[in-house]
């Protein structure tokens, strides 16, 4: 066998080995990237999430009324004067980080934080809604 034939056979093997190495490296880099929670794009989606998280009809209705008044179910709602943020208008908004690092964009994280807040401060979403009706805020 001539040297030129051996080089022609060896070169494609080197190329394939290089491509396999690049693909394996890229695959490892992609699999090592952290997973990000899905963000909620619409008020309708946020309501569906809340409904699943709050099975009691009275508690869901109270929670829904507060969120409707506070943010219109907009995950990104920001109060220009106070800086309150999100579905439940947390002040400051970064308080919601206690429920998850995706608090800026994830309705479930915001709802979880809001429910915990309402339960700890008012006993329940119904208690929070009663306070809201008397004071115009909660």
Automatic annotation (TrEMBL):
Organism whose genome encodes this protein: Streptomyces cinereospinus
Pfam families: SLT
Key words, A-Z: Signal
UniProt-listed SUPFAM superfamilies: Lysozyme-like
InterPro entries, A to Z: Lysozyme-like_dom_sf, Transglycosylase_SLT_dom_1
Transglycosylase SLT domain span: 63-130
Leader peptide range in chain numbering: 1-37
Domain of life, source organism: Bacteria
Name used for this protein in its record: Transglycosylase SLT domain-containing protein
Keyword Secreted: no
